[in-house]
């Protein structure tokens, strides 16, 4: 019996082959996942004139900070960053709170219209009014050239609603019933009991909402392009990229390479790489703090429909 147990603890040849293949596959997956970001990081720190030659992979060939100087020397970049931060913080907080409040309402069995309201929300995933009707609606609501046009249209996301509702439905019924027996009202129960118990789902939705608010620029172009005080970081980066493209296309290829030694030349490739790093860095810094909630929130939220 002892020899059997000893042999059972020893991995077989098939187990060893599987472990080796698994490690090789994971290394390949990590490489494929990280290479695009590392390549953009190398390009952002590489000299723009040298980047035209190509061949930059994981390390800059001619290290420089001129690409970042070119991006941050724009006069509106810091004010636009402040607007993006305010938009992300306020928009995420209101989106999570309002979505959780509606999700709590439609998760209650005694609410007779919960199925109708749920179906009405889900239908918006398949149909929308289109670009022009949306613009006319925003105009009629007097939200043009307003900061709140970034917040109100996406205040309640249907996907966020479903995830939070599914999480709330998975909570023990006894907890909510005991709150009612203690005399707590619906809003008190929601704020003091439901919200603390749904932190994993709320953290997951917070990440989705923050990424959306931080990366969004098209609504700035549609509704607030005439108001420079409400421009966001993403929209300013898009304009910088457009300006760099215009600067290159206005010159012939011969001029571009003949003047490659000029200090003020920044290629669109370098600008795009720098923009990718600048725009992604804040979200990359926030994600590790929400990662432990992310998997749990998505797993539990996907159990019930």
TrEMBL record:
It comes from the Bacteria. Its main location: membrane. Gene3D superfamilies: MetI-like (1.10.3720.10). GO terms for biological process: transmembrane transport. It is a multi-pass membrane protein. Keywords: Cell membrane, Membrane, Transmembrane, Transmembrane helix, Transport. InterPro entries: MetI-like, MetI-like_sf. GO terms for cellular component: plasma membrane. It is found in: Cell membrane. The chain crosses the membrane at residues 20-38, 77-104, 116-135, 147-168, 189-214, 269-290. Residues 81-287 form the ABC transmembrane type-1 domain. Belongs to the binding-protein-dependent transport system permease family. This is Sugar ABC transporter permease. It comes from Xylanibacillus composti.
């Amino acid at each position: 019996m002892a020899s059997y147990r000893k042999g059972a603890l020893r991995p077989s040849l098939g187990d060893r082959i599987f472990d080796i293949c698994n490690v090789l596959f994971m290394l390949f997956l990590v490489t494929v996942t990280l290479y695009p970001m590392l390549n953009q990081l190398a390009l952002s720190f590489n000299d723009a004139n040298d980047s035209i030659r190509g061949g930059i992979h994981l390390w800059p060939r001619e290290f420089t900070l001129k690409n970042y100087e070119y991006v941050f020397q724009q006069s509106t970049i810091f004010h636009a960053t402040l607007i993006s931060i305010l938009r992300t913080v306020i928009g995420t907080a209101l989106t999570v709170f309002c979505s959780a409040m509606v999700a709590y309402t439609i998760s209650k069995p005694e609410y007779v219209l919960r199925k109708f309201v749920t179906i009405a929300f889900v239908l918006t995933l398949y149909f929308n009014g289109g670009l022009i009707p949306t613009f006319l609606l925003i105009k009629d609501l007097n939200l043009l050239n307003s900061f709140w046009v970034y917040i109100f249209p996406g205040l309640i996301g249907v996907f966020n609603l479903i995830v939070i509702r599914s999480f709330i439905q998975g909570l023990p019924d006894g907890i909510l019933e005991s709150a009612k027996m203690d005399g707590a009202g619906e809003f008190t129960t929601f704020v003091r009991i439901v919200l603390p118990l749904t932190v994993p789902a709320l953290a997951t939705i917070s990440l989705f909402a923050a990424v959306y608010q931080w990366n969004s620029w098209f609504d700035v172009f549609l509704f607030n392009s005439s108001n420079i005080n409400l421009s966001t970081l993403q929209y300013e980066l898009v304009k910088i990229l457009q300006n760099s493209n215009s600067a290159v296309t206005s010159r012939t290829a011969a001029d571009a390479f003949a003047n490659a030694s000029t200090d003020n030349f920044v290629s669109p490739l370098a600008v795009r790489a720098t923009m990718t790093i600048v725009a992604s860095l804040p979200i990359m810094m926030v994600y590790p703090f929400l990662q432990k909630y992310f998997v749990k929130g998505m797993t539990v939220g996907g159990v019930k429909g």
